[in-house]
Amino acid sequence: MMDVSVTTLLHVLMLYSCSTTATTAQSSSVTNKRLHRSYSDDHIIRSDMTAMDQIMEANEFRAAQVPEVTSFRDGDIAVTTGGRSKACFARSCLWSKSVDGHVYIAYMVSSDYSDLDQRIIKTGMDEIESGTCVRFVPRTHQRDYLDIQPQSGCWSYLGQRGGRQTLSLQSPDCMWSGVTSHQLMHALGFVHEQSRVDRDKHVTVLWENILKDQVKNFEKFKTNNLDTPYDHGSIMHFGMYAYSEDGDPTIVPKRNKAVKMGQRSSLSALDKMKINKLYKCEIHEDY
Ligand SMILES: [Zn+2]
């Protein structure tokens, strides 16, 4: 029953995406100025950018140019209509756990990356491994694995799809360890924090400030919150100016207005806790 409703939701969203194309084209003369300026230029101090801000900037003009992917959810989660894709929204498609208690995720990294790029990707993996039971291992024979490539933009599929699955980190735009960690968390099965079903208790979405054709990126999902509190500081949280029409905030904290949303390079403590809860990892001091 869950699968049917999720599939229907995806279908509806894809139809919605198609129907907004014409609107975008019609209004292009009005929005011309915005289309030619960068996501962050007018309202975000570059040194304050979070991993998600960087992803939005990298994907701003490129996300539609990826042939493998049918569409993107929330700006950077790849969705295809192929029969192989599992409906992972609202429930997770998990990687399997080893008898030794670790979750080993095999990966390949494209030889097109420079040594520096590869070090940045490795740092993003290390950040996930630290304090969790997840371990990234270079692929030898594993059937299921991440194929990390510098395709167009920064994006990942949600959860494990089975077989080879692309995780794109374009160079240099996506070459932040925090961006790598963010995409790896999508691959582990996590959606964006402000997609949580209970988010309206914790943040206010300022719908009138959102670019009209990007409103769909602020949907809520029936997420499994793993009994964890809402985490404004998650590396999976949108920034305050995500998809802003004119530089005004689009999502703000409800209570403490000073709380900073998102992360630049690290997972929050709650991000790590959520990984361990989702994968039912025992907490050992040697993680
Ligand atoms: Zn994301």
Descriptive tags:
seven-stranded mixed β-sheet, 6 helices, 9 strands, binds zinc ion, Metalloendopeptidase, zinc ion binding
Report on this structure.
The chain has 287 residues and is α/β, with parallel strands linked by helices. It is 26% helix and 14% strand. The strands form two sheets. It has a seven-stranded mixed sheet with strand order 1-2-6-7-5-3-4. A two-stranded antiparallel ribbon has the order 8-9. A hairpin with a 6-residue loop joins strand 6 and strand 7. 36% of the residues are buried. The N terminus is likely disordered. The structure holds zinc ion. Zinc ion binds next to helix 5.
Strand/helix succession: HHHEEEHEEEEHEEH
Mean pLDDT: 83
Total E-strand runs: 9
Weakly predicted, low-confidence segments: 1-37
Count up the helices.
6
Strand content: 5-15%
Side-by-side strand order of the widest sheet: 1-2-6-7-5-3-4
Based on secondary structure, the structural category is alpha/beta
Helix fraction?
Answer: 25-40%
Rg, alpha carbons: 18 Å
User: Biggest sheet, open or closed, and with what strands and sense?
Assistant: 7 strands, mixed
Give the cofactors and ligands: zinc ion
List the helices and strands and how they pair.
Layout: H1 2-26, H2 32-35, H3 51-59, E1 71-73, E2 77-79, E3 103-109, H4 115-129, E4 134-138, E5 145-149, E6 154-157, E7 164-169, H5 177-188, E8 203-205, E9 251-253, H6 269-278
Helix pairs in contact: 4-5
The structure holds zinc ion.
Zinc ion (ZN) binds at residues 55, 76, 182, 186, 192.
